[in-house]
Amino acid sequence: MTLDKLVGRGLREESTGPEEIQRLLRKASIRLNDANSEGISMESRFDLAYEAILQLAICALRAHGYRPDSRGGHHVIALQSLTKTVEYRGERIRLLDEFRRQRAIGLYDGSFEPTRAEINALLETAEDLKNHLNEWLRKNKPELLKP
Q1: Domains of the chain, with CATH numbers?
Q2: For the chain, where are the E strands, in sequence order?
């Protein structure tokens, strides 16, 4: 399914500019930096890394002129659209979707207690996505990286 087919079904069209893209990238970097801190709980580190990834996925959508709308499911759309927005690898998307699912279940019943290995995998994926997105922007939308 193409992104334009999701307009009105989770996405809306809205133009963006370099200021917004820079702001989203900066917020993702701050969250990722905080998630690497050993001085906070595993749950907080997981949440921060997940939020960094979500911010990067939203940034990828924004670079294409789309914004998730306010209805539910925007995490799913943002993450799963990465294959279309920035040609991110499908196996990484599956890992992100599994973490999203575990996090969602844990929010409601308190059952999710991420392990160090899960946090490390999430942090590695977040860093990989950040680098991939920045490279994609440099190649395909350099005008969005200008201050």
Answers
A1: 16-144 (1.20.120.330)
A2: 11-13, 66-68
